[in-house]
Design goal:
Length: about 210
């Protein structure tokens, strides 16, 4: 975890996520009810706390029982559920912020991706946002992964305002460059064509959709 490439990727993602949250007037995650889709072992929830979130207002869902167990150890105050994200069991409009980090790229069935996206919108409060970080394209075909491009984001969240920022150098480039030059890695991160992931903020219904 302390090797240069993962540290560089984490830094770049943090800058992009922070920039999107500032764009909607958020300086931190305080006073928000947050649901993380595909929450895994709880690493992201720990970062949420560092960004000001109240652990008691954090929730997460994941299919893997061992990951939920690990997540409960790292954040015992959070509300964590084992299950499929297309049926979270939460009431309508329960959360101010719904997040997902590299969950959708591992869902190869398009109908399941649409079902989970619909569930994210269902539990989101009016005026709330979806915070997204995932692969936008793959350097080579992989039967177990899919890239989620800007067009699919629009299909998953129809009529919503969507702001995207490209981040995370393609892994091959990052592994070659980051150990040699942190400055060069940071410069290359600014080239959108070299970014492998999107950070996205899905907001309220757009004015065009309303009309």
């Amino acid at each position: 975890r302390f090797s240069p490439a993962p540290l560089a990727a984490l830094r770049a993602r943090g800058w992009a996520l922070g920039g999107l949250m500032r764009s909607i007037g958020r300086g931190d995650l305080a006073d928000l009810d947050i649901l993380d889709i595909g929450c895994g072992s709880g690493v992201e929830r720990v970062r949420f706390v560092l960004y000001g979130a109240d652990p008691r207002r954090l929730a997460g869902i994941d299919l893997m029982p061992d990951r939920i167990r690990d997540a409960r150890r790292s954040l015992p105050a959070a509300a964590l559920r084992e299950g499929s994200a297309h049926q979270t069991g939460y009431p309508d409009a329960s959360f101010d912020l719904v997040t997902q980090f590299t969950t959708f790229s591992s869902i190869t069935q398009a109908d399941m991706r649409r079902a989970i996206a619909a569930e994210m919108l269902r539990v989101l409060r009016p005026g709330g946002s979806i915070l997204w970080y995932d692969v936008r394209r793959l350097p080579r075909p992989n039967p177990d992964l899919v890239g989620i491009d800007r067009q699919e984001l629009s299909v998953l969240f129809p009529g919503r305002r969507i702001e995207t920022r490209t981040t995370t150098l393609e892994w091959g480039i990052l592994h070659r460059v980051a150990p040699r030059s942190r400055t060069l890695a940071q410069l290359l991160e600014r080239v959108p064509a070299l970014g492998s992931h999107y950070v996205a903020l899905v907001g309220p219904v757009s004015d065009t959709a309303r009309s």
